[in-house]
């Protein structure tokens, strides 16, 4: 996955990050600085994705150029989101990258909505060329694609939690946000196996605007939080 925009690299010899670009090239970088910069790059890529949409609508880019450049932006958004979730690129495995690639395939052409209609960059591009989508609608759709990078981030958070022995979780509603009926139903305040809890931004009307979040925990903490034998969680531990 092309993540050349990230100006740092992991030095396995000392188990630390080093900057690779600019005046600080070669110097050590803290994990906090790396993840903060990665987050800013995700925001920059999201803005660039919207600009690509404006250029395509204005005829400054043809369909092939728009799809190629937008696809690269989405790859960087999803890849960077995974890096943030797993606390650095050194923790993102080949299996993780394969999972992100599958998510991107749905983003590009394989995905279908709840009513069975196809969606993705391939179909969005065709709808623009057919005059079925306005510039405002195109930008709104691209904004949703950019936010979908959270899917990769959430997947990696689950993986990282499982690898650290935190197989249980609760699902919470973010405060100061109007949640859809599905999110209200998905709320899970009693610990369960994380694999049994519907992930945020999945099967809800909020879609990528979903503000729900999971709190992962060990079996010991899950029991303290009210995990019961009836949930099946204890027998699975």
TrEMBL record:
Domain of life: Bacteria
Stated name of the protein: Phage head morphogenesis domain-containing protein
Organism: Adonisia turfae CCMR0082
